[in-house]
């Protein structure tokens, strides 16, 4: 049986360096370098960076894999949507309204963004004792499964729970448009091609957005989706450039990181139901949660929001477990990935940690190399001291000038009226 890996500390000597090949991200970094040299000498380094990023439109950001014509029709079933998201290895995708006219604006063309967590939460909402659909869900073999024995998380995390759920008619027949109440934006906050890098970076950091669609008003469609991970990759490709080295050499302590101390970290114990972990992440709007051993109070694993797809795409791997605890979930997924020969999944990395003496540059290279969204800060004994996310790092790159956004958010559409999750 696979085990949960131990804490892995970032080692400076193990980090790679920027390739000599000029990638689109590296070219973008050199564009910042040219703008940096043109700034007035009396400006501070922070003011120079802000001015540089304000001068570059988001249309210059390299196209991401998340934006390569990944759209889901509103009449797609939940089962088909999960299969598509899983195959493309993305957490979410914009939903196109099949009933929208051909000449519709982008606001009318899209009804929102569907995501794995939203699908899971919606399904669980239907199984709530207050829901008319809750008493039982029929499987494809004609059998039914009662999910409301005692109404708590442990009741719905038995080993065969998701195996039965994913074979149910509810899962197979419900359309994506039917769960629009789980969408966070209606349709979503988006940038236009001529908006600046500074605007994008502030939205991804201070305003806590994990991804931002860039729309082409002429085509009335999404041209690109910029993510926090994409920005970190861009920064990793800028190693060696003067502006990056000047900023990246600072240690965590020097820039006031971590912001979140150990007393404020939202965590879960290894013997708690895994659904509780995903519910916490959804409710607290966080991207990951550490799994803690009760005896030692030390982190033994990490579950991220994107890992929720393993509940729907591989429900059979928990069949032999009496209940799906966070530890059982980590072990089952590791065994599943090892059998498939998949060694690149971030969940296999375990707990990756750093100390307050590491530099921003070292953290960026590790986050990019491991394709993870957070690093845990530990002391010399491995005890948890804090947490650093992609957002924390981006927030140290730029700052918001007074009155910068003005009425920018006035045009943001509200949450749907039937939003309930």
UniProtKB/TrEMBL annotation:
This is CBS domain-containing protein. It comes from Brassica napus (Rape). Keywords: CBS domain, Repeat. PANTHER family: AMP-ACTIVATED PROTEIN KINASE, GAMMA REGULATORY SUBUNIT, CBS DOMAIN-CONTAINING PROTEIN. SUPFAM superfamilies: CBS-domain pair. SMART domains: CBS. It holds the Pfam family CBS. Residues 63-129, 260-321, 347-403 form the CBS domain. The keyword Protein biosynthesis does not apply. It comes from the Eukaryota. InterPro entries: AMPK_gamma/SDS23_families, CBS_dom, CBS_dom_sf.
